[in-house]
Amino acid sequence: MKLFFITTLFSLFCVHIPAQQKNCYNEWNAKFAERGADSIEDGEYSDVIITFRKPGNTTCYNGAAQVKNGKLEAFYTEEENGELKPVKREWEGSLKNITVNNGRSATMVARGNELVVIFWPRKLKQSTHIHDKDCSH
């Protein structure tokens, strides 16, 4: 009886917290949050990662983007044949003031609650891990 009581009591205090689902958005977002990024100057970039997230589903594509006055001007996914295809969605709100900070765009929301974020991986700062050197020689 004591074992049953202790087990029941223990189970009342244990809360199951699911692990954050591993996906390409979470991985890129964690890298940028941890390391930061150099500023994104105005221009055209052919080396961005475009992430599309819906509940339970995340996809990421290589792509291209244009930045003007620190804001996202246009963006395209890269097809398998190398052709750039404009991203077309029905957006919740205007895309005229999508800022680019810390190597990523602000989150854009398409109808159906699809979340779109663009990352500039080449602007990611280098890892700041300090490597220990063996100084005994």
List the helices and strands and how they pair.
Layout: H1 2-13, H2 24-35, E1 43-54, E2 57-68, E3 71-78, E4 84-86, E5 100-101, E6 104-105, E7 108-110, E8 114-119
Number of helices: 2
How would you characterize the largest beta sheet? 6 strands, antiparallel
Q: Pairing-aware structural class of the strands and helices?
A: alpha+beta
Strand content: 35-45%
Supply the number of structural domains: 1
Low-pLDDT runs: 3-20, 132-137
User: Roughly how many Å apart are the termini?
Assistant: 63 Å
Q: What gyration radius follows from the Cα positions, in whole Å?
A: 21 Å
Q: Provide the helix percentage.
A: 10-25%
Overall geometry comes to globular
Tell me how many strands there are: 8
Q: What strand order characterises the main sheet?
A: 4-3-2-1-8-7
Helix-strand pattern:
HHEEEEEEEE
The average pLDDT value, as a whole number, equals 83
General description of the model:
The chain is an alpha+beta fold. The protein has one domain. It has two helices and eight strands, in the order ααββββββββ. The chain has helices spanning 2-13, 24-35, and strands spanning 43-54, 57-68, 71-78, 84-86, 100-101, 104-105, 108-110, 114-119. The strands form two sheets. Strands 4-3-2-1-8-7 form a six-stranded antiparallel β-sheet, covered by helices on one side. The longest helix has 12 residues, at 2-13. The radius of gyration is 21 Å and the shape is globular.
